Amino acid sequence: MNEPAPDPGRDQPPDPARADPTPDADPAPVLALRGVSKSFGAVRALRDVSLDLLPGEAHALAGENGAGKSTLIKTLAGVHRPDTGAVLLDGRPVVFHGPADARDAGIAVIYQEPTLFPDLSIAENIFMGRQPRRGLGRIDHKAVRETTAALMRRLGVELDPDRPARGLSIADQQIVEIAKALSFDARVLIMDEPTAALTGGETARLFSVVTALRAEGAAVLFISHRLEEIFGLCQRVTTLRDGRRISSRPLAGLTEDDLVRSMVGRELGELYPKQPTAVGETALSVRRLTREGVFHDISFDVRRGEIVALAGLVGAGRSEVAQAVFGVDRADAGEVLAGGRSLPPGSPTAAMAAGLALVPEDRRQRGLVMDLSIERNIGLTGLGRLGRGGLVRTVLERGRAADWALRLQLKYNRLADPVGVLSGGNQQKVVLAKWLATEPAVLIVDEPTRGIDVGTKAEVHRLLSALAADGLAVLMISSDLPEVLGMADRVLVMREGRLTAEIPRAEADEETVMAAATGLAGKAAA
Fold this sequence. Notes:
With about 525 residues, the protein is of the alpha/beta class. It folds into 4 domains: about 30-115 and about 170-260, 3-Layer(aba) Sandwich (Rossmann fold), CATH 3.40.50.300; about 115-165, no CATH class; about 280-355 and about 440-525, 3-Layer(aba) Sandwich (Rossmann fold), CATH 3.40.50; about 370-440, no CATH class. The chain has a 6-stranded mixed beta sheet, with helices on both faces. Strands 16-19-20-13-21-22 form a 6-stranded mixed beta sheet, with helices on both faces. α6 (about 200-215) links the parallel β7 and β8 (about 220-225). α4 crosses α5. The protein is globular. Mean pLDDT is about 85; it is low at about 1-25.
């Protein structure tokens, strides 16, 4: 068995402000990897990786998309078996033949998108397939409800065990998944991008739950692209790059720049490289756009050469406005004009013909066809120009894809590979390539950097800035406030389906944007 390389970070003293008081020596790991390698064909996803998860510690796993994080998680969860090396449970080698084995060993995974049965209650979801029984094999519904209520009390949340899962927020769904893990007596909790779709308040509540679990001795592996969350929650961080472990050390004394350098292997440069641009004529006008019960009386302009950000809290109606502008959803009233010409409502085809392009928030469900090749996905918006008589000319399609792959620095093996094999950041580049290939006048991008690593995020920001400098009009919807402030020429703020403020770049800061998003601006003015 391969032993891990010496880890200088293990000898550094803990920061009392960050870590709980512990004995001088670290406790024995609950779960560990030793010299694990894993390949898929010619792709080496993990190369001699070692990792320790200690009881009572939140351990961050950091790295760019494609660094090997997903493969490592699936190895711990029993989805993949290592080609070489070993998984250790309480110091002893163990072989998981599937996720059920890992779950029975006390390892639970909470994914970014919970998978609950919507028509079943919270209690039924938690105990699905293993309900306690009474005489004659009947389900003991009272025991199911009481045990679920006890789990919720343990987590410090108030959720009715009889409430249906349908309609729960993503945050509450994740609480249910955590309760399910506790019902298995999970000793290791793996959280994969759990806060991607959460508000600040929901994230804080989730973190308080994790802190409570740590106090009970659970080991937590936390994966996030949000560096501030890693520093706020975790005590130790392991960094992967190209399938190798680069470092594993305490977060005490590290800076965000230190962590980024470890992740990307280079100086990142400016994360928000906003270029000065010459603002031209109006490319997109929205006039009193209304969709009953969703948004009301929305009016704004986007001019060539500028990036306009649509900001606000989750649920404010930003994505719904973007979909109505593009014609995915039909507005009940109002008008959208592109280049001065009115667009028919509810017609994406007309929007595309007028030079609009929409990069949706959910790239996997709405932006890509995951089973199709990279080249076919890039070519989907130009099939009429890539073929004749209903037949697509492969040479033209591949040439178009290769051109955009080069421009966007796409990382791939073959253009004929399914787009689903790419990392999240590279999938986002494929969506951008698909729409940029239409040579649009207006680019609408909804959450352009959600779920992608810091290196790819900087590349996307550079691309958007360059496109604006070339005269493209960009409407950007983002929940990432630093991204909004770093990239926008103007910030439009929405609250409860209405526009509440328009803030020029020079006046935009976190306080003014959040005041408009929460309604505090109006109260202060009053």
